[in-house]
């Protein structure tokens, strides 16, 4: 009996389909790489482009690279996936610079030869907070030049807030703020880069209470020194809808506070 697959697009499940039929649906544009397929091994829905049976279909057509050949941060070996098309190659430093200037986000997908499938930048070791920090701390002029001053100045900002998406409500706190976004801490690990959230900030340190719609652009686990377990997560969010009055109030607040690098 041939293996069959169930697909999910915009919350609607279809199937079962045999492998060739799934590929035909992708080729015809009825199903995209960003739609979901049920993975029996994980007992969960996963993106089509990272499913073991389909990942190779979405990979760039480039020569394989030996796993014994190390890729340095200057090698142009990385590809980016956007809207079903792949772009590249780029170096690790190129991608870090794109993350810095916000032309690329942690929820975007990257791949390099030797990898079995695309992966979100947020889950790729080379672009982890620790690895980027290590690069930043190197005494190398070529590397340090990619870490430039942020577009929006940030300042520490302590405020409680309520966060909700289309399904759940969470309570959290803010750590820092700018007129373009904020760093917030929640106890939920269910929020992922790329998602949209509604935030309600309580009044704090001279900034009035305000609402904002935002997009999650980064996620970081906060671990306690006493344990390897963590129930707290820091999210970087970019404001996509905020009033002009609130933006002005935040900018005034930041002028009076020490800046966060």
Description:
- The chain has 261 residues and is α+β, with helices and mostly antiparallel strands.
- It folds into 3 domains: 4-57, no CATH class; 78-144; 154-260, Thrombin, subunit H (Beta Barrel), CATH 2.40.10.
- It is built from 5 helices and 15 strands.
- The protein has helices spanning 19-27, 92-100, 129-136, 141-144, 244-255, and strands at residues 4-9, 12-18, 36-39, 44-47, 78-82, 85-90, 109-111, 119-120, 154-164, 169-177, 181-186, 196-201, 210-222, 232-241, 259-260.
- The strands form 3 sheets. Strands 9-10-11-14-13-12 form a 6-stranded antiparallel beta barrel. A 4-stranded antiparallel beta sheet has the order 2-1-3-4.
- The longest helix has 12 residues, at 244-255.
- The chain is globular.
- The model has no long low-confidence stretch (mean pLDDT 82).
Low-pLDDT stretches: none
- Any idea how many domains? 3
Provide the spatial order of strands within the biggest beta sheet: 9-10-11-14-13-12
CATH superfamily of the largest domain: predicted glycosyltransferase like domains
SSE order, one letter for each helix or strand: EEHEEEEHEEHHEEEEEEHE
Radius of gyration: 21 Å
State the helicity in percent bands.
10-25%
Cα separation of the termini: 59 Å
Label the overall shape: globular
Instruction: Report strand %.
Output: 35-45%
CATH topology of the largest domain: Thrombin, subunit H
The average pLDDT is 82
Number of strands: 15
Specify the number of helices. 5
The secondary-structure class comes to alpha+beta
